[in-house]
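Chain entry —
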Amino acid sequence: MLVLSRKKNESIVINNDITIVVVEIRGDKVRLGVEAPKEIPVHRQEVYDAIRRVEKPETTTPREHRTTDKDTPPPADTTRHPKNAE
């Protein structure tokens, strides 16, 4: 983990298109501003963890449905393509 020190109104740039700015420091709380492209999701860790729990597929599969062939690609996900939506 990279640890950086920043003061109020100072920023960090990530990958040329994400900027994190220290907006306010009040006691033990720091307010951060995040500027990122719309297609980059930005969440607090607890929100991200909750989203992952909801999206996580079932981890237990009946033995007869398990595959041992690691070269078999996963099935295509067509639900996210607008042309397949009705």
About this structure: Residues 7-56 form one domain. The longest helix spans residues 45-55. Residues 34 and 44 are 11 Å apart (CA to CA).
